[in-house]
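> call design_seq(struct)
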């Protein structure tokens, strides 16, 4: 049975972060008193309403079993009332910043917070790390964003302009932003992580070499441009791996995903301008 069809282990808490019915997240806490490092988890599905956070629960539970608290967030998506630009972005931003309130009642270490996401969620995770680059007055600007220790993109759609050019998922990027890059150049400029580089935070990209849903070229190009901008970025290319294996803790991709998350959380606070690229051996 596919990871998309298996019921995930239940969360410890399902908590609201705002007034909408879709403003909630699943919090999972490791055993022990903490405070625990935290991974903000953002599910994929090309930003569309028919995909929700449930399938990412397997990976969240696995990370929590390794000592990392996970905050898996739901958000308004294309097809939901209010979904799409700008509210899909603002919801994810609000959910991330809600960790400050959650830490008042749960043992969370806000000095060690990373964001990770899969596919469209990988895009949103990178975007969270880029929020400080969005100028005041832009609809996607949020003041005082929660600082991130790093970001992990799993088969992420890191370049919305390229996603539009490739017509990924029958025009998902155009649906998300309401039009093409020609129609809304400023929306693409502040919604697409590749256009907000350098992020100034460590990034790790994991992408299956045989991914036929989000082409590996997107992560490769993002890596190259991020590296040239001075960011500390690692790309792990997984051979014989498709789109969904990186979120399946029973797949051969799991050790690479876990190692990436642990490395981001254990790295020193200050980002450096170095970069690394690695390929997993078959």
């Amino acid at each position: 049975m596919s990871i998309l069809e298996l019921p995930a282990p239940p969360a410890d808490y399902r908590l609201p972060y705002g007034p909408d019915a879709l403003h909630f997240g699943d919090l999972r806490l490791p055993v022990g008193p903490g405070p625990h490092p935290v991974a903000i988890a953002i599910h994929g599905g090309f930003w569309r309403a028919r995909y929700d956070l449930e399938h990412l629960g397997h990976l969240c539970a696995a990370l929590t079993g390794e000592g990392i608290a996970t905050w898996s967030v739901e958000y308004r998506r294309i097809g939901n009332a209010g979904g799409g630009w700008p509210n899909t972005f603002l919801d994810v931003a609000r959910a991330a910043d809600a960790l400050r309130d959650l830490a008042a009642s749960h043992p969370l270490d806000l000095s060690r917070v990373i964001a990770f996401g899969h596919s469209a969620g990988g895009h949103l995770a990178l975007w969270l790390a880029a929020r400080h680059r969005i100028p005041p007055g832009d609809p996607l600007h949020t003041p005082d964003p929660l600082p991130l220790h790093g970001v992990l993109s799993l088969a992420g759609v890191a370049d919305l302009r390229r996603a539009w050019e490739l017509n990924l998922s029958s025009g998902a990027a155009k649906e998300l932003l309401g039009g093409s890059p020609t129609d809304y150049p400023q929306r693409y400029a502040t919604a697409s992580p590749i256009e907000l580089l350098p992020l100034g935070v460590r990034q790790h990209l994991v992408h299956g070499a045989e991914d036929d849903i989000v082409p590996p070229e997107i992560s490769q190009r993002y890596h190259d441009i991020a590296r040239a901008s001075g960011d500390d970025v690692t790309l792990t290319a997984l051979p014989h791996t498709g789109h969904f294996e990186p979120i399946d803790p029973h797949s051969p991709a799991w050790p690479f995903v876990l190692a990436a998350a642990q490395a981001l959380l254990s790295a020193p606070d200050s980002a450096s301008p170095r970069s690394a690229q690695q390929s997993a051996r078959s």
